[in-house]
């Protein structure tokens, strides 16, 4: 920015204390702005399943100076095995650890979501105000400011409101036309939870295919815990509605859909009751024509959720925060231009990572019959015997984010400022 960092400090409110919101706070405060992050959960939500970094997401973390911290928390997952009902491995695709090419089903940078959240929080907490147990229930805006109305009945005035409140964003709902559906559905649903680890749970992720378009995955991230994922193809109203029901109803639903699946299903269903959390979701992408309206802008999954099957959900949030912060930091006195530039620069990357999700290929990996499952496993075993996945990964010129280049740093990472008060 021509005037130097911090020449036009803004009061920025970020709704949502997840990965995109934290990364945005990191860069905006280093641009000299006063940032408040409000998170509806009563404490840092350092939970969740395993996530990964790929392509430009790895570079985004490296630009923040946090790659060593991430490396220190990586999960030991060596690859992905496809197993039968007796647990016998039919084929295994190993992670690409060569340092070049494309990541395979397992990334070189696998990390628990909670660990990544803690890393970003520690890197941003000293110069960002975090307010937990509070949400933005509504807002009003004019040409000079946006007034946020909080869940505790208070309000505050800001120069910019960022909706980083996830796939089900309330901020997004408020700025889009009434009745607009931002979700692109693929007809797949997922639930995951933790159970105690046993000796047989290795550092290879097991994938078990079940007739009826169902799939079970097991992966272990530490000496005591194992993650369980139930995934299924279904386009019923019941399946789409279950994710909004109480957790006990969700658990009954998933148990009923998988009770006859075999393998270790009984162990997995029994473990639901003692899991520290249970999460159920429909696999969707968020696709909207606009990411901003006036002094309100969307970031992360609220703007462009790519879905877990893109492999770029976390990376997309980090990259989007990098781009948005950079445009704001360079044009703090011209927010309309900054927000327009944000969309122009980031949209090709988002189109690329969302385009990685092909419903036909997803359905191919979730066969309806045992004969189709056997054929899939036989073909995968042959490909692995011929080292096709390894060779394709190593010699690919691009990862899932394509050739799109991460812009220059939004701000010098050494620049910090004093934490503000909410509503400033």
From TrEMBL:
InterPro entries in alphabetical order: FAD-bd (IPR002938), FAD/NAD-bd_sf (IPR036188), FAD_aromatic-hydroxylase (IPR051704)
MF-aspect GO terms: monooxygenase activity
Keywords: Monooxygenase, Oxidoreductase
Region (Disordered): 400-424
A Pfam family matched in the record: FAD_binding_3
Domain FAD-binding: 11-325
PANTHER family linked: MONOOXYGENASE (PTHR46865:SF2), OXIDOREDUCTASE-RELATED (PTHR46865)
Protein name: FAD-dependent monooxygenase
Organism for this UniProt entry: Nonomuraea typhae
